[in-house]
Each structure stands twice: as structure tokens, then as C-alpha cells.
Write a structure and sequence with these properties.
The complex is a heterodimer of chains A (418) and B (454). With 418 residues, chain A is mainly beta. Chain A folds into two domains: 34-52 and 264-417, Jelly Rolls (Sandwich), CATH 2.60.120; 59-255, no CATH class. In chain A, 8% of the residues lie in helices and 36% in strands. Chain A has helices spanning 2-17, 180-184, 286-290, 365-373, and strands spanning 24-26, 34-40, 43-49, 59-64, 70-71, 74-78, 97-107, 118-123, 150-158, 171-175, 194-199, 207-210, 221-231, 239-255, 268-271, 277-283, 298-307, 317-323, 352-354, 359-363, 381-385, 395-398, 410-417. The longest helix of chain A is centred in the N-terminal third of the chain and has 16 residues, at 2-17. Chain A is elongated. Chain A starts with a helix and ends with a strand. The model of chain A is unreliable at 1-20 (pLDDT under 50). The longest helix of chain B has 12 residues, at 5-16. In chain B, strand 15 (367-383) and strand 16 (390-408) form a beta hairpin. Chain B has one domain (5-445): Porin, CATH 2.40.160. With 454 residues, chain B is mainly beta. Chain B is built from two helices and 18 strands. The chains are: A mainly beta (418), B mainly beta (454). Chains A and B meet through helix 1, strand 1, helix 4 and strand 23 of A and helix 1, strand 3, strand 4, strand 5 and strand 6 of B. Strand 1 of chain A pairs parallel with strand 4 of chain B.
């Protein structure tokens, strides 16, 4: 009997499972969701200037650029642990270790040797390691004449002959054996790990060297060559001698750049790393435009577009757009500001690669969506070129005061709402 | 005790599968189940007049006093809706009832049945095109929905006189439904765009889909009144008249949850971490669902009258008329994704039943034969957004019904079959042919009778 019941249940299960669910075509013209657009043209651009901040740059600069940028010296701090052996500066004090030689090496950024240039190396025997900060030091707060440097040695660029078709970058090597004790002597409260390099004579053009941000292989580094003497048997005279190379790379390095005086062009927004011109975008009517949007609207596209003069703009640069997190006091943005007063909300908007077609289109959809959610307020947007751009280039965008309306910036929004 | 293990097994399976799929389930509260059991379907009626057994209708509690035994009834049904483009089948449990007559004077009953069901997947049959900033944007819509309203009923009936009986039925309606609108956007694929690459994306594979989900939770209570009289005669033939009304007892309440729309970036139809705005992991988590409570969005009301002329002891001729209305007047109908409201539904049927003989001499005298013809008219209206106007829409059914019921066992157990063949004329959609089939099993037992001690 039980089997019959189970069979009946199974039959019903199979019969029911055969039900169909085909999509049916119907007249759905009545909007359950609708799409619409908004266009905003009341967009203003402002410039402000801070000292150049090139601490996270992959290159270090020396010499004077044709645009007038001066790069008088470069500073380094080397780390106290070797990257290829287990030695530290402290452990090199051991009496069994004898230091044979010590060199500080920089790598040029191009593979063609520059001749006739001499560079000097200085250190700071009485100043400790707080000479500079990668993120805060600049030409305004770090004056060369106020630094108590001591000359160490000079060096010239040298390029090893390649064994094959490999690229061999020229290097600049300084002998630092005579000051190495000041690095490894931990009993000195002013233990020195900071170095300064500058050209002996003015350079008519700019040379670029690889910085610590360019990777271990080409980072500025201190090479210390040692040999260890070990007695194999205490009752005999037999000894073992090992020759070793210890590499201490630079952890912080900074080019000091002194920008020329450049006045911004009226009606244009000027941006640049070396000049540290940054832009602020104010969309004053944005709130009143977004307010009437239905509560559960989703921004599908928001393009903030700027035109720029092609002849003055370098192709293929990268622009960082970030929402400003507090009210901007424009009256405080006069002259060169020691510190950037504009705080931003990071990681919301993507970096934009600008190609040379005369128009910059910034996707600010996430920013507008967050405003519509009520999570952020419309304090404006901050524009700056990112650290891979050439610091000696200037980039200009037409801002609202342009004489030709068609060149004015515009925000075009698409949205969908229930 | 007739609720044995086998019936539990059957119930679990039947409750587990309730399907529906057609455009009508996207209108109003969904497709309303107007005939719940096989004997009603067999006569093509609304169940006001006796059709289950002589003087008994499972759908009219005022007739339950005439039941000789307590009954448990389970009905299972399936509907096939065909037109020239589509063929969809829906099936599921139509009714579970327990009816207990008490000494021929009173009766009580409980029941569980679907009130309405929604399961639809509808795609727009045309594309909206916009030209914006030298781009061509193509929009399309798809709406999906599922769920429905269940009905738990409790009935009381009493005999007033030898010929007059009355009953009250309370229906607690509860349930939920999920509605989804998928709005797709496709840029520049019809050849008008400068960047058109020559490949027309007819399947929408390159479309960006924006999905908006809503959930409705329902509850409300209805009250039904029934009155039956067999006082009248036409000649020597007994004429039974029944009337019923249906109204709201507690206002029907809808809790609507409106979830934030999202861009379905990975096109999987679900809101997940790959979509925009992201549901978790950063500061852009969208606000939680908006909750709104609505009342008076659905105010059903129904009046019905029926006549049964007993031509002979076994042969009966019946007619029923009913008028169902939704008295709600809402410009924004939360119940329907398509914003259609079923405002009126009218039904009329004429049926003939040959009941089984009380004490059958041959096998075929244990069988009830039912047949009928019926006409139904559905009126809908659709409010135009941002406008006080609305458009009307209607469709009509003409149907033929046949059915039979087989009595078996001492307690007059019964196995019923009902079949409707319906031609639907639709002023918007394609005309339909609908086949409605139902099976009912009713098991009787004796309650409130002292057993003889062994």
C-alpha cells in the first residue's frame, strides 16, 4: 500500500514539474522606470598653488629645465638594513668584519651617458636624520644655505659596456668609505643616514635619476664591501676569509624643485606638478538640479567635460579628480600656500587618462550618486595631475570665463528612476 | 481518523508547487481564483448553488447543514493558456477544506485556498528610442513578478427555519509578492550613431540593465454573508434561491518595500558585489529600502444570486449571477506592476446537474454529471501617471463546462473532476483559449455520533 502512495506522489511531482514559464510579450509602454537627462553649465574653475610635492615621484631631478624650473639638489635617507644580506649598520661594528670599501650609487634614467658633469656628495654629521620629509619638504622650507652639510666626495657618470643587447644605465658613484663610521656608529645620537647630491657646476638642462619608488634594482643605494675573518681551529693558525657586498637602499628621496613664476591665463585652469598648480571645480547649481530627482534615482552616467587648447597641452597625461570634503574658503587660496588646505575624499573617482583630442571628459557618476544618497555634500571637486606626469609640463583647461560659450565646461547627467 | 499519513504526504507536495504565468497575473492583485473546486468548475458556476451533492455546495456554507457527514476536501487544478504566440500552464493546490455539520442545525468549516496568484515574466514588444547628444539610446523593459495572496477562511452556518439557512464566512487574506522591473539601455545600435559598428544587438547582450525590485506584504479580512431558501415551488418543483454578499471587514493593508535600483553589471539578475552601487564594502552602500504602508488600495465587494430548480429528484437546472468590484480608486496602483486595476468582474452561468441517486442500483447512479455554459466580463482600468485620466480595458470569457463526481464508500466520499473550455476575447492582448482542469478528493467521516461499545 505504501508503495502505491509513493507512486502517486511521484507521478504528481513529475506532472507538476512540467509546468512552463515562457516570457510573454506585452505592451509595457507605461513607464515603471523612466530615463531622463540633466545638463548643467554653471561650472566655475579656480586655480591655487602649493609648493611642488614630488616625494612619491619615480624620478629625481638635477639641473635647470628650459621652462625655468630649477632642481638644485637631491636628498636621500638610506635604510639601516641590507636588502641582500642579514647585516644592519649596527652589526657591521663587529670586530671580525672589516669594511674594504663603501660607495653611494645613483642610476641615470636614460641609457645615454652624459659627459663632463661632476656631482658632489654631502652628508650631515651633526644633524641626525630629520633633515627632510618626502611629503612636506619643499623649496620654501628647505633652503640649501641653511643646511649644515659637509663635503664627502665627487663623482662622474660611468657606463659599463654591455655584454649583449641589454640596456645598461649609466651610474653615478661616490666613495663614502671615509664617512661610513658615522652611518654604522649607533652610539652617536646624531647617527647620520642622510645624503645630499648636487651638481658641482650649473647644468643647462635637467638630468633625471631613478628614485626609490622605481624599485629595488635601480634605487639609490649604499654598497658596503666587507670581509670576515674566521679562525677555523682555535689551536691552529688556519683562517677563513669571506668577501661580501651589502646593499642599503634609499627609503626616502626627494628632488627640490624651485618653480618659475608663471601667471595663470584668464579663463583657463592651469595644472602642473612642478608648478603645483591645482584646480577647483565649483558646480554651484548642482544641489538645486539634483533635488527634484525622484528619491530612488540612479545616476547612469555623469560626464563633466572640459575643452583645452591642444597646442599647449601635452598628450596622454593623467588627471586625478577628488571630491572636496569641506567648505572651500576661496579668500584663503591666494599666493603659494605652504600646505594644501583642501581636504578631499579619496578613492571615489577614478584617475582619468587624457588623450590629445581637445576635450577632457571626467566621469563623476559616483560623486553625484553619493550626493543624491545624502552621504556627501557638494563642496566641489579638486583637480590635479598625478605623479607619473612630467613635473615640468603645464596643462590648461578652459574654465567658465572663456569667451567662447562652446568651450565652457559642461556637466551632462543621465539618470534612471522608478 | 481519515487524516492519515498518505494525505499528509500529498498535501506537502501540493503545497510546494503553485505556478502561474501569463499577462493576466500582472493585473491588479494577480489572477484571482474564482472557482476553487472541481464541482464548481464542472458546473461553470461560482459555487453558490448546490453542485457537490444534492443540496450541498462546498463553496456555500449555508448549504453545509445538509451534509450527512464531516468532510475533508482537497482540490488540485491546472490551467493552460494558449494564444498564437505563447502557451503557458499553471497548476497548484486550489482548495483545502474541513467541514463539520452539527446535528443538521449548524455547521462550521475552515478552509485554505489561494485568493490570487502572480507569476509573470513579460517583455516589452517595442523599443523606446531617444537621441541624446549625438547618441542613439534604445530602451526596453521587462517586468517579472511572483507571489500572491492566500485565503484562510472560517465559516459558521445555521438553520433559521426548515427552509431558510444562513452563514457567515470570514476570510483572512495574507501573502506577499515581489515585483521586478528590468530597464535596459543600449547605446547606438540601430545604425543612426556615428560609432555604429554594423552589429545590431537584437538580444540585448550589450545592454546595461537597471533593475528595480519591490516587495508587497498583504493582509486584510473579508466577510461574506450567505442566505439560502427553498421555500418556493414552481408547480411541484422546488426552487432554491441563494444570495451572498462579500465586503471588507478589516481594510486591506499593503506594506510596500521599494528597494534601491541597481545597475546589473554582471547581468546575473541579482544584486551582488559586482553591481553598482555596490551593496557592501565601501561607503557608497545605497540607502535601505523605502517602506510605505497603503490602505484602501484594494476594496473587493461582491453580490451574487443563484437559482436552482429541481426538475426531478436527481435533475437540477441552475443559474447564477454575480458582480465583483474593486471599489478602490487609486491613481498609483501599488498592486500591479502594469498599473492595471481589475475594477469589475461579472459572471453569469446556466448549468444542469444530474445528481447521483441516494441509494444507487447501478454503478452509473453513483456518479454526478455536471455541465454548463458561462459568460464572464472583466473590466480593468489603467491610470495614466501624472494625469487624472485613465484608460479602460476589458476582456470576456465564454466557456463550456463539464464535470463528474464519483461517490464511493459508506460516508459518501467523492472523487470529482471538472473541466472548463474557455474562449477569451481580449481588447489588447491576443485572444486566448483557456483550458481549466480540476480534481477534487473529498473524504467523509462521522463526528458527534456515539459509537456503539464493542
Amino acid at each position: 500500500m505504501q508503495n502505491i502512495h509513493l507512486s502517486v506522489c511521484l507521478f504528481l511531482l513529475i506532472a507538476i514539474s512540467g509546468c512552463l514559464e515562457n516570457t510573454v510579450s506585452a505592451d509595457l509602454n507605461d513607464p515603471g522606470m523612466m530615463h531622463d537627462t540633466l545638463s548643467i553649465s554653471s561650472i566655475m574653475g579656480f586655480n591655487y598653488q602649493t609648493p611642488p610635492q614630488l616625494g612619491n615621484s619615480t624620478l629625481l631631478y638635477l639641473g635647470t629645465d628650459s621652462s625655468g624650473f630649477q632642481n638644485p639638489f637631491v636628498l636621500f635617507i638610506v635604510q639601516s638594513s641590507s636588502i641582500n644580506t642579514s647585516e644592519t649598520f649596527d652589526s657591521l661594528i663587529d670586530s671580525t668584519i672589516e669594511i674594504d670599501s663603501a660607495k653611494f650609487i645613483l642610476t641615470l634614467n636614460n641609457d645615454t651617458i652624459e659627459t663632463g658633469m661632476i656631482f658632489d656628495l654631502y652628508y650631515f654629521p651633526n644633524s641626525g636624520d630629520s633633515i627632510f620629509s618626502e611629503s612636506n619638504s619643499n623649496y620654501l622650507n628647505l633652503i640649501e644655505s641653511e643646511l649644515s652639510t659637509e663635503y664627502v666626495s665627487s663623482g662622474r657618470l660611468f657606463q659599463r659596456l654591455p655584454d649583449s643587447t641589454e640596456n645598461i644605465y649609466p651610474t653615478l658613484s661616490f666613495n663614502v668609505l671615509n664617512i661610513i663610521q658615522s652611518f654604522i656608529d649607533s652610539s652617536n645620537i646624531n647617527q647620520n643616514r642622510t645624503l645630499l647630491v648636487k651638481p658641482k657646476f650649473d647644468l643647462s638642462h635637467t638630468l633625471s635619476f631613478k628614485s626609490s619608488e622605481s624599485g629595488f634594482a635601480f634605487a639609490p643605494q649604499l654598497h658596503i664591501f666587507t670581509h670576515d675573518t674566521t679562525y677555523i681551529d682555535s689551536t691552529s693558525d688556519s683562517v677563513s676569509v669571506d668577501t661580501l657586498s651589502h646593499e642599503f637602499i634609499s627609503t626616502d628621496d626627494l628632488s627640490i624643485i624651485i618653480p618659475p613664476t608663471v601667471s595663470s591665463v584668464p579663463g583657463q585652469l592651469t595644472l602642473g606638478r612642478g608648478l603645483s598648480y591645482k584646480g577647483l571645480i565649483e558646480i554651484s547649481d548642482l544641489d538645486s538640479f539634483l533635488l527634484p530627482l525622484p528619491e530612488q534615482s540612479i545616476i547612469t552616467k555623469a560626464e563633466l567635460s572640459f575643452h583645452y587648447p591642444i597646442d599647449t597641452t601635452q598628450p596622454n597625461f593623467y588627471l586625478q579628480v577628488q571630491p572636496v570634503s569641506d567648505t572651500i574658503h576661496y579668500e584663503q587660496l591666494q599666493g603659494v600656500l605652504l600646505e594644501d588646505p583642501i581636504e578631499v575624499i579619496s578613492n571615489i573617482l577614478p584617475v582619468v587618462n587624457i588623450s590629445n583630442n581637445g576635450k577632457v571628459v571626467l566621469n563623476i557618476r559616483e560623486y553625484l550618486q553619493l550626493i543624491h544618497f545624502g552621504y556627501v555634500s557638494n563642496y566641489g571637486l579638486k583637480l590635479e595631475v598625478i605623479n607619473t606626469s612630467n613635473p615640468f609640463n603645464l596643462y590648461s583647461l578652459y574654465s567658465h570665463s572663456s569667451l567662447i560659450d562652446s568651450l565652457n565646461p559642461e556637466l551632462f547627467i543621465h539618470y534612471v528612476s522608478p | 481518523m481519515f487524516l492519515r499519513k498518505k494525505y499528509y504526504q500529498l498535501l506537502i507536495i501540493l503545497f510546494s508547487f503553485i505556478y502561474a504565468q501569463d499577462v493576466y497575473s500582472a493585473y491588479g492583485v494577480g489572477e484571482m481564483l474564482l472557482s476553487h473546486n472541481a464541482s464548481v468548475i464542472g458546473t461553470g458556476s461560482i459555487g453558490l448553488m448546490p453542485n457537490f451533492q444534492r443540496n450541498v455546495s462546498l463553496s456555500n456554507p449555508s448549504t453545509w447543514i445538509n451534509m450527512p457527514f464531516a468532510y475533508v476536501s482537497i482540490n488540485y487544478g491546472g490551467v493552460q493558456i494558449e494564444d498564437k504566440l505563447n502557451n503557458n500552464i499553471l497548476s497548484g493546490l486550489n482548495q483545502f477544506q474541513f467541514i463539520l455539520p452539527i446535528k443538521g442545525r449548524y455547521a462550521i468549516g475552515i478552509g485554505f485556498q489561494p485568493y490570487s496568484s502572480q507569476l509573470y515574466s513579460l517583455k516589452s514588444n517595442n523599443t523606446e528610442i531617444k537621441y541624446i547628444q549625438q547618441d542613439t539610446l534604445n530602451f526596453n523593459r521587462m517586468i517579472n513578478g511572483g507571489g500572491g495572496i492566500s485565503d484562510f477562511s472560517f465559516s459558521l452556518s445555521a438553520r433559521f427555519t426548515n427552509t431558510e439557512k444562513g452563514a457567515l464566512k470570514f476570510n483572512y487574506l495574507f501573502g506577499s509578492s515581489r515585483n521586478q522591473i528590468a530597464y535596459s539601455l543600449n547605446e547606438g545600435n540601430n545604425g543612426l550613431d556615428d560609432n555604429f559598428n554594423g552589429v545590431i544587438d537584437e538580444d540585448g547582450e550589450n545592454s546595461v540593465n537597471y533593475i528595480y525590485n519591490q516587495r508587497n506584504i498583504y493582509d486584510g479580512t473579508l466577510i461574506n454573508g450567505y442566505l439560502s431558501s427553498n421555500r418556493l415551488y414552481i408547480g411541484k418543483r422546488s426552487l432554491t434561491i441563494s444570495m451572498s454578499f462579500n465586503s471588507i471587514l478589516n481594510p486591506f493593508r499593503i506594506n510596500n518595500y521599494s528597494f534601491y535600483p541597481f545597475e546589473d553589471i554582471n547581468n546575473n539578475g541579482y544584486y551582488d558585489i559586482n553591481d553598482y552601487p555596490q551593496p557592501a564594502g565601501n561607503d557608497s552602500i545605497p540607502p535601505s529600502a523605502l517602506k510605505s504602508e497603503f490602505k484602501n488600495q484594494f476594496i473587493p465587494s461582491q453580490y451574487a444570486i443563484g437559482f436552482n430548480l429541481e426538475l426531478t429528484e436527481m435533475l437540477n437546472l441552475q443559474a447564477e449571477l454575480s458582480d465583483w468590484s474593486d471599489l478602490a480608486n487609486n491613481e498609483n496602483n501599488m498592486l500591479s506592476n502594469m498599473n492595471y486595476q481589475l475594477t469589475d468582474y461579472r459572471h453569469i452561468n446556466i448549468s444542469a446537474i444530474r445528481f447521483a441517486r441516494a441509494l444507487p442500483r447501478y454503478w452509473y447512479e453513483s456518479v454526478h454529471f455536471r455541465s454548463g455554459i458561462f459568460f464572464r466580463e472583466y473590466n480593468l482600468k489603467k491610470h495614466i501617471l501624472n494625469d487624472n485620466n485613465f484608460v479602460k480595458y476589458d476582456y470576456n470569457d465564454i466557456g463550456l463546462s463539464i464535470g463528474l463526481g464519483v461517490k464511493f464508500g459508506f460516508t459518501k466520499n467523492q472523487l470529482d473532476f471538472g473541466l472548463n473550455l474557455i474562449s477569451r476575447s481580449d481588447s489588447i492582448n491576443n485572444d486566448k483559449f483557456i483550458t481549466n482542469f480540476n480534481i477534487g478528493l473529498t473524504i467523509g467521516d462521522i463526528w458527534f455520533v456515539k459509537r456503539r461499545s464493542k
